[in-house]
Specification:
This protein is an alpha/beta fold. It contains ten helices and 13 strands. The radius of gyration is 21 Å and the shape is globular.
């Protein structure tokens, strides 16, 4: 497939443009951070050679332990951070061509972020209407003041903040944590986005109200045609909402595929480890699942080889010297592992089918 070249003054996803391929995809996406003194050559590898794709009207879950690079990917896709190398394509057009302030503003409206902490996108000094009205003024300038207010009321009703006209006049401290997170989704939906980058939006909420926020991600996909990148460390919530699952480990993709296939037939030992760590209420007292042993991942100037080899009970010689490529083992199901096979169960840990909401 030949990629189109971004034209001056244009931005991917502008009115009237659409691509035949995925909505968003990356090629070799990499982000390194220099550490130490100004003369130091040491680098922390936050994201390494990541290639992922998100289709139209699709929810993709990006999961992994803390520090694996999930949030860095979201910041790269939102153009908050600049990649060290690699390219991001949005509707077939490279984002490296989006440089002017006007084009960056237009793209930020097409792919807004919803943050883990609602206060990251809500100014506590103003009423909650301030943020969504300001977003509408910046990203949809064709709307008049009354039209902006009507649209703000519509998206508040859409995310379950009813009555919308009343909630718009409240201050952030008058809302619960779940309501504030709904305000974040309302601000994003008001821009008429193509893709929402949701960075662990339910991790700070009580378990009892998470299900409402998870449903809130499914409903806009169906009603508004919005795709969502759902970043999480919770496989149960990922299974509830996502179509596809991407597992990250130490800045690299370990496994990806349709979520039911990956959870039912995990190929990478790290995916099996994540599943084995899910508590099983059916297990007898005193019986615990096998857990991994070994060293934490090395992401500061890592050497060639599988980054999970220090913790993997199935590691072989080549795991210590050759970095495994992400290869397709089954249709749309890929894993970066030397020992994983399509026709065999490479069980490294006792993993049960427990990733259920």
């Amino acid at each position: 497939m030949t990629e189109q070249t971004a034209q001056p003054g244009s931005v991917p996803g502008a009115a009237g443009e659409s691509g035949a391929g995925p909505l968003l995809r990356t090629e070799g996406l990499t982000r390194h951070f220099k550490i130490g003194s100004a003369l130091s050559r040491r680098a922390l590898h936050a994201v390494d050679e990541v290639g992922l794709s998100i289709g139209e009207r699709q929810i993709v879950a990006l999961a992994g332990e803390s520090g694996c690079g999930k949030s860095t990917i979201a910041r790269l896709l939102a153009k908050i951070d600049r990649p060290t190398s690699g390219e991001i394509y949005f509707q077939g057009r490279p984002l490296s061509g989006v440089k002017s302030r006007q084009d960056r503003l237009r793209y930020s409206g097409l792919a807004p972020m919803v943050f883990q902490d609602p206060f990251g996108s809500i100014n506590p000094v103003y009423r909650v209407s301030h943020g969504v009205m300001r977003s509408l003024k910046l990203h949809r300038p064709e709307l008049g003041r009354q039209q902006r207010y009507a649209e703000a009321e519509r998206v508040f009703e859409l995310v379950g903040l009813t009555p919308g006209a009343e909630v718009l006049q409240r201050y952030p401290h008058e809302l619960s944590g779940g309501q504030r997170q709904r305000v974040g989704f309302a601000q994003a939906l008001a821009m008429r986005p193509k893709l929402i980058l949701a960075d662990e939006p339910v991790s700070m909420l009580d378990v009892s109200i998470r299900i409402g926020l998870l449903n809130l991600m499914v409903e806009p996909r169906d009603a508004e045609g919005v795709s969502i990148l759902y970043i999480t460390h919770d496989l149960a919530s990922a299974r509830y909402v996502a179509d596809r699952l991407i597992i990250m480990y130490a800045a690299q993709i370990a496994e990806s595929g349709p979520i039911e296939e990956v959870l039912a037939n995990p190929k990478h030992p790290y995916t099996q480890l994540l599943l084995s760590a899910v508590p099983d209420p059916r297990a007898p007292l005193g019986v615990g699942a096998e857990t991994d042993k070994g060293e934490p991942p090395k992401v500061i100037d890592p050497t060639p080889g599988c980054r999970f080899r220090w913790r993997c009970p199935l590691a072989v010689g080549e795991c210590h010297h050759i970095t495994p490529p992400l290869r397709e083992l089954l249709p749309e199901h890929s894993a970066a592992c030397h020992v994983a096979r399509a026709d065999a169960v490479t069980e490294a840990f006792r993993c049960r089918d427990r990733a259920r909401p």
